[in-house]
Amino acid sequence: MIGSTISIKGDLSGEEDLLIEGRVEGKIELRRHSVTVGKNGHVKADIYGKSINIEGEVQGNLYGEEQLVLRQSSTVRGNIISPRVTLEDGANFKGSIDMSPKDKAAGEAPAAAAAAKSAAPKVP
Amino acid sequence: MNPTSSSVSKADHPVYRSLGLKELCQRLEGSTGCSILDLGPARGANLAFWSRFSPSIHVADLYTSMPLPPKPEDDTQGLPWNWVDILGVSPGAQFDVVLTWDLFNYIHADTLPHLTRHLRTLCRPAGLVFSLLFDMHEMKAAPTVYRIVDDEHLAYEFRTQEQKPCPRHQPRDVTRIMQGFRTANSFLLRHGVLEYLFLSDAQM
Question: E strand or H helix at B50, and its extent?
Fold first, then answer.
């Protein structure tokens, strides 16, 4: 755990779960473990984790290998890449969310497809 | 999904039928790879709903990025907002669907063409823009948050009970505001909301 009075600048990596209640600036990489940014946590970094849970403040991109949760108290500015994303109402988020599976098949964009088709039937 | 069985209380967040949303979903049916730009705030229900059409959603949340309603001194001018910074979209990103919700009722009429011109550059050919315009005399003093209940119902989360005069954009205003788009369909709902689906005429 990184306590609320701790401030770290640099890259963090490891082989265990991590709870951040302090300040971290840099990069956080625990791809096989859970990373939690607690309510008092302030992170300015990209975060890589198996499971990521945000309750505090993050400025950076979030890469959740399995899942990612933004709690009601969270503020996140950055992009999210994870196959499963849960967003609680009240979560303050701005950025992109990409839930594509890693080995996604190519899909045809509907707008491009629609351009080649006639107009959709009107709603009665 | 039966909207009355939703966890959203009807008293707190009234639920309305949305024909525009219904048509949008019909047009997207079968698609799994479209890209969506949401100008409203992030809502878990909406994210879950769109995930069946799209694995990629950009939340711009203009509700917090822009001072809405504009300050009185700003409201009289068509200010050239820095849309690139405000929307926070990556360079080169293109979208199949843009959700503007009711924002067009709250942005100055001279500023709106600047925004829609920028949105057009972000739309793929035949990209769709979903907008709610108000036809009543008064509207809520701040934009409403819309939570998708199902394919054809929206729950309205009012952020204030205060009212202000409604701009009531007329068809000629809409044409001027939405240059580069054409109206694919529009629906006048009983509670005074005009739902529009605009189609981008951006070329490939």
Answer: helix B44-50
Model pLDDT, residue A123: 35
Q: Which regions in chain A score pLDDT beneath 70? A: 102-124
Q: What is the band of B80 on the pLDDT scale with cuts at 50, 70, 90?
A: low
* Residue linked to tokens 């799994």: B32
Query: What angle is formed at CA B57 by the lines to CA B54 and CA B59, rounded to 5 degrees?
Result: 155
Q: Hey, is the C-beta of A97 within 8 angstroms of any chain B C-beta?
A: yes
Q: Are A95 and A78 in contact (CB under 8 A)?
A: yes
To the nearest whole angstrom, how far is the Cα of A34 from the nearest Cα of chain B? 21
First vs last Cα of chain B: how many Å apart?
Answer: 37
ipTM over 0.90? The verdict is: no
Gap between the Cα atoms of A59 and A79, Å rounded: 9
**Amino acid in position B163:** Q
Q: Does B58 touch chain A (CB under 8 A)?
A: yes
Residue B111: alpha-carbon gap to chain centroid: 16
In this prediction, residue B11 carries a pLDDT of 52
Provide long-range contacts, Cβ within 8 A and 24+ apart, for A63-69: A65/A31, A65/A32
Q: Which of A79, A81, A94 to mutate to test the interface with B (most CBs of B within 10 A)?
A: A94
**A-B C-beta contacts closer than 8 Å:** 104
Of all residues in chain A, the one with the smallest CA distance to B93 is A96
- Please say whether the beta carbons of B41 and B22 come within 8 A: no
For tokens 């711009």, name the residue.
Answer: B60
Q: How far apart are the first and last CA of chain A?
A: 59
Predicted local confidence at residue B171, as pLDDT = 87
Q: Provide the strand spans (E) within A38-111.
A: 42-54, 57-59, 62-70, 75-77, 80-81, 85-87, 92-98
CB-based contact (8 Å) between B11 and chain A?
A: no
- Provide the shortest C-alpha distance from residue A117 to chain B (in Å): 11
Q: What pLDDT score was predicted for residue B74? A: 52
pTM score of the predicted model: 0.85
